[in-house]
Amino acid sequence: MPMDANVAGNVFGGTILRLVDEVASIVAFKHARSNVVTASIDRMDFFSPVYIGDLLRLIASINYVHKTSMEIGVRVEAEDPVTGSVRHTGTCFLTYVALDKKGKPSPVPGMRLETDDEKRRWSEAEIRRKIRLDQIGRRL
Ligand SMILES: CC(C)(COP(=O)(O)OP(=O)(O)OC[C@H]1O[C@@H](n2cnc3c(N)ncnc32)[C@H](O)[C@@H]1OP(=O)(O)O)[C@@H](O)C(=O)NCCC(=O)NCCS
């Protein structure tokens, strides 16, 4: 919508990030079935611009769970509603932590990996988790 864009019609990156966080948090909440908070958002590169009037599609999946944290991946696509052409405009990985009623991190259910894609996403997310925690000096 016009309020999401600059005067040249390019949608703000922050508008897209907000949607990414919202969608990913819903996936995390549905897995944990409890309140969740965003612990971290990995870098997000914008491969191509999104314009006013484009239709945005956010496809999110839960990739990995540890004790209380979950990695959610979100792929953002923009569709030109006139031509129907779809562009992959960005991908982002976010970590959410489930909280109990006292606001403390609480265990999340495990995942059953069935498809090759799910197994690939899990192994890639495990590597990202190590890098992420290493960067902030946390023990695994
Ligand atoms: C996320 C938060 C609950 C973690 O609290 P904490 O005291 O570090 O808790 P713990 O040490 O028990 O760690 C809990 C989990 O968070 C993970 N974690 C903590 N900081 C993290 C970070 N920066 N990136 C990724 N994961 C992180 C830990 O690895 C751990 O995962 P695991 O249990 O699956 O192994 C706390 O930092 C917080 O409340 N942050 C603010 C969240 C928020 O308000 N977000 C909205 C935007 S402001």
Summarize this structure briefly.
29% of the residues lie in helices and 29% in strands.
Descriptive key words:
single chain, 140 residues, alpha+beta, four-stranded antiparallel sheet, elongated
Provide an overview of this structure.
The chain is α+β, with helices and mostly antiparallel strands and 140 residues long. 29% of the residues lie in helices and 29% in strands. It has two helices and four strands. The protein has helices spanning 13-32, 116-135; strands spanning 36-41, 55-65, 69-79, 86-98. Strands 1-4-3-2 form a four-stranded antiparallel β-sheet. β3 (69-79) and β4 (86-98) form a beta hairpin. The longest helix is centred in the first third of the chain and has 20 residues, at 13-32. The mean pLDDT is 97. Residues 37-40, 66-69, 95, 97, 105, 132-133, 136 line the site of coenzyme A.
